[in-house]
Amino acid sequence: MTKLKNIKVVVSDLDGTLLNPQHRISDYTKSIFQELHNQNYLIVVATGRHHLDAMAIIETLEVPVYLVSSNGARIHSPEKEELFSFNLNSDIVKTALSVDIDPEITVVLFKENVWLTNKLSEKLNAFQSELKYHPELVDYKTLEDFGAIKIFFAHDNHEKLVKLKDAVLVNSSEHLHHAFSLPTCLEFMDKSVDKAVAIMKVLEKEGFTTEEAVSFGDGFNDVQMLSSTGKGLIMGNAPVLLKETLPNLEVIKTNAEDGVAKYISSKILNREFVAS
User: Fold this and answer.
1) Disulfide-capable partner of 229 in 47, 49, 213, 252 (CB 3.0 to 4.6 Å)?
2) How many CA atoms lie within 13 A of 275 on its CB side?
3) What is the pLDDT of residues 56-112, one digit of tens each?
4) Per DSSP, what are the bridge partners of residue 217?
5) Cα-flanking dihedrals φ and ψ of residue 75, to 5°?
6) Please, are residues 118 and 106 in contact by the beta-carbon 8 Å criterion?
7) CA-based R_g, the chain, Å
8) Residues assigned a catalytic role
9) 74-86: b or e for each residue (b if 16 or more CB lie within 10 Å)?
């Protein structure tokens, strides 16, 4: 097992992990990440969010951060330079959306500057405290360019999304893989795209190994990331099924309890105190 004193890189998911239930970074978490920077740790945020959306969040940390966004389809340097990008081909997306989709399901395509959706959702907009990545209402029946960074479906009924996932994969399993970032959120990416793959690119660029990295996550889009780093930590608020999928990984406090920051404080920075 990797000793935490050998950790040089901290990797964290955003929603349900670094962010509290109000989709914000707490002052305590901010202070801990600033201390990480002061002690020369490399910081990587790896999220399913679009980079425009995620950048507005990580800027509040006020420290240099590598950003892996759209589950690995984009990598940006701390200076916001795009280091890697991958888009889904229009025909591949069109095939994926050609299945029978329950009209109650929200269908989203992540584009470079806007997200296309079949219905405007206040629930999805609530994930952005400031709307930096704007929605655009479209009729997919008349859309011509289906090229996208990733495909996203949302519905409160998990079983409906499972049924849709199975239907999409019948014709698209050669090109796409899926992940439930939340039980209510189903995402499809190109098979070559994953948070873990993108994180490896960052580590190679900076001269670190996966054994020198610790990662924090709460969703099924975090599985490979959590499994591939020297130490993977599962949030206490993560779905039971994720904890059962990775039974050897430690479960820490919830995002509502600043679980990531408290773990870093006590296990990596070796502070004698944690926030109450």
Assistant:
1) 213
2) 17
3) 999 999 999 999 999 999 999 999 999 999 999 999 999 999 999 999 999 999 999
4) 234
5) -130, 130
6) yes
7) 18
8) 13
9) bbbeeeeeeebeb
